[in-house]
Each structure stands twice: as C-alpha cells, then as structure tokens.
Amino acid sequence: MLDRPLPKLSQNPRRLLNQRWQIYPQKPEFAKELALVTNLSPIVSQLLINRGIKTLEQAQAFLNPESIDLPSPLTEFPDLALSVELLQTAIASQSKIAICGDYDADGMTSTALLWRSLRSLGAQVDYAIPSRMHEGYGINQRIVEEFKSEGVELILTVDNGISAFEPIARARELGLKVIITDHHDIPQKLPPANAILNPKLIAESSPYRGIAGVGVAYILAVSLAQQLGNTKGLIQPMLALFTLGTIADLAPLTGVNRRWVKRGLKLLPKSQLPGIQALIQVGGVQAKEAGEIFSSPIPSPQSPIPNPQSPVPNPKTLKPEDIGFRLGPRINAIGRIGDPQTVIELLTTDDMSLALARAIQCEQVNTTRQQLCEQIEQEAIAFVETEFLPSLQQDRVLVVVQPNWHHGVIGIVASRLVERYGVPVFIGTYENETHIRGSARGIPEFHVFTALEYCQDLLGKFGGHKAAGGFSLPAENLQKLRSRLCEFANQCLEPQHLKPLLQIDAQANFNQINQELYQQLDTLHPCGIDNPDPVFWTANVKVVEQQIVGKGHIKLTLSQNIDQREYRIKAIAWRWRDYYPLPPRLDIAYKLRENNFNGKTSIEIELIGVRLPKDTQFDLFYQPSPHPLRTSFHYNQRQYSCGIYQNTSPPELRIKNSEGKVLMMQPGSKIGLLGTSREDALEIDLSLPQYDCIIQAAIKALSTLSPES
C-alpha cells in the first residue's frame, strides 16, 4: 500500500538513544548547609554530595586539596627507600640503567619522565618499549637479553612488570638488578625483583592508592632528586609529564592525583618542555572561534609549521578535557598504530623544532587512527545489524570478529559499540588463519576479567580488569567462546541492564545556566575518573533548530519557557548523526561548556543523553512493540482506523477514513501525506486545524492501548 517514504525527512534507523537514566537522590537540606559554608550555590553543593562528601570538613578538603597533610611516600611504599638507594648507587658508579616502558600514554610519559630526570641527575640511561603488534604488553625475555648484551646493570620497568615473572627471573639469573614500578593488579606470585613499587601493595586508605604508572615514576624521581639534593629545575617538568599521563590514562582524579593534577594543569600552558608546548600548539588547545569548533585544529602536513619560538598565546589553566580529548589521543594514537619512539623523542627533546616535527607526526598518525576507527566502526555496525541484532536481547553480549581490522584501534571501536548497543563487547581480528586477538569492554553490571576467566580454557593469553580486557584465542574456538560468553552474560545481566547507564547529578533550568554557575563548577576541577564532569538534566525542552555539522555531529538551538519567558541555549551532540533529526520535544542530559567567539564568552551545552518527555504524544511512536498499535475511533460522527507503524524509519502514524484515504505523519514533522497510495498522495500542512484535530483524536485513542494490545 503506502510504501513511499514521506518527503523532506532524514532517515533515522536508531530513532533515539537507548539509555537508562540514574539521577542522584537530592539532599536539599544538606546542600543548603554546605552552600552557606562554602559560598557555593545549592546546586553545586549537591554535586559535592554526589561525589561522596558527607561532612563540612570533607568538603573543605575536596575544594582545597593543598590543605591536606600528605604522608611521606617513603613511609607508604615499603621498597621506595631501597629503590632510591639502588638508583643512587648506579648513578655514583656510572652503571648503565635501562628503562622498559609501555606503548600507551601512561607508559610513554612515565618513560620520558624517568629518562629526563635520571639524565639530569647524572645517570647513564637508555630505554626500550616492546612492539605492540609483534610482542604485546610488558617486558619480555628478548628485551632482557638485549639489555644484558648492551652492558645494562639495572633495569627499571615503568607501567609494567608486576606480572612478568619469567622475564624478571631471567634478568636476575643474568646478574641484573631490577626495580619494578607499576600500578596494575597484583598477581598471585610476585616477580623476584630487587624492589617493587606499586600502589596496589599499599593500604587502600592511602592517598597514593590511585596513582597511575606515571604517578609511581613521579614519586620515585622526586624522592631520588630530593635524596641527591638536586631538585632545581626538575619538579615542574616532571609534574607536567605526570599530569599529561595521569589524565590520558584515565586514572582516578582523587587523592594525590587531584592535588598534583590541579597544580599541573596550571603549569602546562607555561611549561618549559618543548614537547608540551608543541603538543599544545598542534593540538589546538587554546579557545577556538565558534566556526572552528568542528574543524581540525592542526594545519595539514603541507601547512607551515608553527613558529618554534612562539609561546602558547594567552596561557590559562587547562582543563582535563583539553588533555583527554586533544593532547592524550595524539600520544595514544602513536602507541596504537605508530612508533612509540616518536612520543619519547617529543617529550625528551630540548629542541623546539624537533618537538614540533614530532608533534605533527603525532597529529598525522592520530588522523589515520580516527579514519581507521570510523571505518572499522561502520563495518562492525553493519556486521552486528545483519548477524546479531535480532538475538542481542537473548545473547546479552556481542562477540564481533572480522579479518583485516587493525588491532591497535579495535578497543576504541569496542567502547563505541558498548555506547551504541548497551551490552558488553568482545571484538577481535584475525592475526593469521589460526589465531585471533581482541579487546573487550564491559558495562557496570558485567566484570570483563571474570568473564575471560570463565572462558580461560578456550583462550590463549588474556588479562584486564572489571571494565576492560584483552585476549587471544585459536580461531577454531570462536563459536565456543561466543556461546560461553553468552552463558556468562545471562548469569549476571538482566534485560534492564542492557541500556547504557547515564548518571545525572541534578536538574537545572535554562535560567540557571550562566557564567556564575560555570565558574562555580570550576571549584570541582580537575574532573575525570571518580570525579566526573557534572551532568545536569532539563525537562521538556523545545528543539528550535538542528543541523548536521562536521563529521556527523548535531548542532542545535534549544529553548525552555519559564514564567512566560523563553530562554534559549546552543548545544552540540557529538557523533549523533544516527539520531538526526531529534524529536521536537525532549528531556535532555548535558554538560556545560564555555565558548569564546570574537572576545565574547557564552555558556553552551554538550548533549550526552536525551529521552522523550513523559506524557507526550511522541512516546507512542517509540514504544517498543512486536506489532503495530492499531485501533479505531470516531471523530465528527465519522469512523476512522489508525495505527503506529514502527517498521518504517522514523515510525509513522496512519489514519484511514471509510473512503480509503490515508493521512500519514511522522513525529516532529510539519508535513504529512494524504491519499489512497503514496504515488498519488499530496503533501499537506499538518498544522492546519482540520488535520491537527484528527491527529490528536487518533493519538488519544491509541494512548489507551498498551504495547501488547
């Protein structure tokens, strides 16, 4: 019958985001009490409560982390004094020291931090990083043997080594001393190193417990410099590298991380390290003109290199998102698909021209990484929609394996698939005809490492933690692995878990969103893991304008009427092409962002969630239903039949009269079709009273039905 699509509407295959909203319980009385003491608004005080603040003393310590008395790291880390002594002896005797790092941002910044500091303190030091593609994570026997042949006497691991029993045992067998600095989980059997520094080995209550690998390296370097009485010119460069690595590694921004990162973010724009300056310039961290927000901040490879002598214009305190979204990815991209030596040279050189050249290499590799991610994501989505979507609710996990995907980026794609489908994702690619290597990402109710342990007889190497992991397996075990993971997922997941969880801090209205609120939020920074960016929600806002911009983003103007006055605000929804166009009325969840344009500053919002407002007609269009909702009704003494058809995209309301004419509309559209078939149907203005009234009568009739009717 009427199978021609309605005109002037974009296709919307996924309709709306599949989310479950969890709004923190509000405590208005305590929030008011906190507001009086802290001089913050009650809405910001509620954010402190959401972050675990239960007393006024805790609030003051959170807002002013420098006021906390820190214990000496020497009293917290049992092997720190011994590690300092071993390094001090090696420097005094000019024994050769070798650092074994890792290829992610944490490992590369740790390597650079220790290499710079040891060189400044007079050590003979070199480094090695294993190949991601050919050797995988951590120190290995080849590296140990190579160090021995080069005359190395002391090995220093950074961001790895805690699980490398055999390589460390081999190093000791060859007469080498070993200091392990790591932050990963403790295995049942510790390697036979001379000294081990790992925050997982100290008390859980320690403020040093949450440091990343670069935090361990920072503590060791500062302790050594203090012992040698030579800290001049060392602390600030090391703090810059600590800040970069800590945020890029998604370490929790609590304890000493919060204190030191807060310092480091102030220092970064003025850093004397050429590599940091080059990254900031090339990464486009400074405030951009509004028109530039969707364009690449770096010149193309053919564009002129920035002036090596030019400092960063208008230095300011950076925010973690400047690192998390601009600087960190450019470093991590090298570790994923490039040569880590590029980043080490970037962060260790004192030559600004070389630093800029390496930073531009990072930019080029990151562009390639983005393209790979986009390509693999689209291929993965097509594969999932074809093969697994009908059974996803029953399987409760996705296992996606295809040939010719780049192993270095499939972990990023796994995270995007989790966002899209709301289930744990295990993604892999064939290394050859007989071997698969992959990455996994979970959801809050699913423990990735426990799932891998449940399948260990089918796997080769595997590792990870609650939220993420890596694995390999013989290709012949793929179907068994898929079945086993489905079995595990069905044991721990309920249907209601299969939606991405969005945690929301508080409700706000548009008249509350202003520069004063944004500046008060700055007291919560630095935000990140365990201290997330505040998320607000506003009910039943109107979408005034929306358009696709850049690489699939939606740019919007939203409005809310409060006390007969309209308040408007601009918004951006990153990578939401699949949800365009959004319905005209929405509940929105968002973060606040500052925009600077032509010297004017405004507050805008970044959408991270939407849902249909309660008690609106649009609920009917998006209710999950195994078959169309259909009914009949009377209007102006005539009988009509009507139904909502969800097999179209977007779904449609169809109203049919006794002569066989059908009126068709889609949610949010001002234009409908009227006719006996799509071929002869005419476009009509749905706002005209004769059509609007009959549509409202049909919706009223349909709203009395349940989806199962």
How are the secondary structure elements laid out?
Blueprint lengths: L19 E4 L4 H11 L3 H9 L5 H8 L9 H4 L3 H14 L2 E5 L4 H16 L3 E5 L12 H9 L4 E5 L6 H9 L3 E5 L13 E3 L15 H15 L7 H14 L6 H13 L6 H10 L36 H18 L3 H8 L3 H36 L4 H4 L2 E5 L7 H12 L3 E8 L2 E7 L6 H7 L7 E3 L3 E7 L3 H15 L8 E4 L1 E2 L7 H7 L14 E14 L3 E10 L2 E9 L11 E13 L2 E12 L6 H5 L6 E7 L2 E8 L6 E5 L5 E4 L5 E5 L6 E4 L3 H14 L7
Parallel strand pairs: 1-12, 2-3, 2-4, 4-5, 5-6, 7-8, 13-14, 16-18
Antiparallel strand pairs: 8-9, 9-11, 10-11, 14-15, 14-17, 15-16, 17-18, 19-20, 20-21, 21-22, 22-23, 23-24
Helix pairs in contact: 1-2, 5-9, 6-9, 6-10, 6-14, 7-8, 9-10, 10-11, 10-13, 12-14, 12-15, 13-15, 14-15, 15-17
Describe this structure in words.
The protein is α/β, with parallel strands linked by helices and 709 residues long. The protein has 4 domains: 20-64 and 502-611, OB fold (Dihydrolipoamide Acetyltransferase, E2P) (Beta Barrel), CATH 2.40.50; 73-288 and 298-367, inorganic pyrophosphatase (n-terminal core); 388-497, Diaminopimelate Epimerase, Chain A, domain 1 (Roll); 618-702, no CATH class. The strands form 5 sheets. It has a 6-stranded antiparallel sheet with strand order 19-20-21-22-23-24, covered by helices on one side. A 5-stranded parallel sheet has the order 3-2-4-5-6, with helices on both faces. Helix 14 (341-348) packs antiparallel against helix 15 (352-387). The chain is globular and about 100 Å long. Mean pLDDT is 85; it is low at 1-14 and 287-315.
